[in-house]
Amino acid sequence: MDNIQEWSKIKLKILDYYLDVYRNIMKSTEEKYSVKWNYTYIDAFCGPGLHIDDDKIIDGSPLIAIKKDFFNEYIFIDTDVKKMNNLKKTIQTNIDVDLKNIEYIKMDSNRYILNNLDIRNSYKYVCFLDPYGSHLEWQVVEKLVQTENADLIIHFSIMDLRRNLENESSKERIDKFFGSTKWCGIVHTDKETLFGKQEEKITDYENNLLNHYIENIRSLTKKIFVTEKPLKLTNSKNASLYYLIFTSPKEAGLKVATQAIKKFQKEANDVPKKYKNRMDSSNMEPDNGLF
Description:
The protein has 11 helices and 13 strands. The protein has helices at about 5-35, 60-65, 80-95, 110-115, 140-145, 160-165, 170-180, 185, 205-220, 250-280, 280-285, and strands at about 1-5, 40-45, 50-55, 55-60, 75, 100-105, 125-130, 150-155, 190-195, 195-200, 225, 230-235, 240-250.
């Protein structure tokens, strides 16, 4: 198990809330129209399933989803074999669920979703895409959104982008994250100087990158709703850490996401204050490193 920080706990609280409301809406819709769907939960960077929070153990995203007792099947994906083995052991020994309905995929999430995931029209999907940095490839988002039957929760790590934009070795990964090299023109511009044209970083490039990503999602299909203002997390220096972007093929899904953001944005805003009051933030608070 790993120690969990306040920033990550907010994500889990939002997921918990979102899945509750999603389940209630879908059950109500099924009853109203006398229909029955199958549901799949995909956790693309699932981790060990349990986390240490000070002196207690709390559920990670896989256990939060399973305990809703709603989905017909679960797909948990992670490259970390040890974490996946721990997750499997935790579920088998502590959770009352049909184990035949759970897949444990020990491989790169991008490769699995692109090459192995069989999307079925009769299923509804909820996909929690919570990478450790900007390691989610655009083609994955593209595939899931274009099914027009998947709700996505996407961790957009502006912190990881900020620390790697100028790193040549990270350029290919960032290209895959955005799906093209167009992001370069959003971050830099050519400025005329006495010495000719020189490259200069655009002041508001972080918001521009976020908006570029969201607009690209909207362009994938007409049947998509995306949160206008994603949930935002910052550190005590007011530097952005990450955003949570929600997408849904249904307007009702967007309303659920908007409710979740409204409910938790104030708590998210208060997180940096907790760190300032409790400890030396330079030791514990994420700035330009991953968390």
